[in-house]
Inverse folding.
């Protein structure tokens, strides 16, 4: 693949000077930089959706009822329940 990179004249001059200082061609210098970038990038084939915790899945339902609210609801439900 060939990539054309538009550079300002001063950017091009800096790139050439840096390559000469390192004893490389400009292509080799750019290739070094590209190799470092690609080494840090995640693999495209291994991108999977992150696992979500149960707390994250249930977050859309809001905060859980407190123990007092559960006791109150239980008492209201059982208030009219027939007893032996």
């Amino acid at each position: 693949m060939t990539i054309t990179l538009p550079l300002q004249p001063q950017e091009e001059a800096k790139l050439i000077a840096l390559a000469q200082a390192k004893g490389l061609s400009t292509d080799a210098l750019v290739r070094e930089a590209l190799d470092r970038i690609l080494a840090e990038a995640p693999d495209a084939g291994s991108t999977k959706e992150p696992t979500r915790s149960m707390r994250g899945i249930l977050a859309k339902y809001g905060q859980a009822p407190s123990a007092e609210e559960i006791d109150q609801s239980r008492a209201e439900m059982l208030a009219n329940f027939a007893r032996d």
Remarks:
- The mean pLDDT is 87.
- Residues 9-41+53-78 form one domain.
- DSSP finds four helices and no strands in the chain.
- The two ends are 85 Å apart (CA to CA).
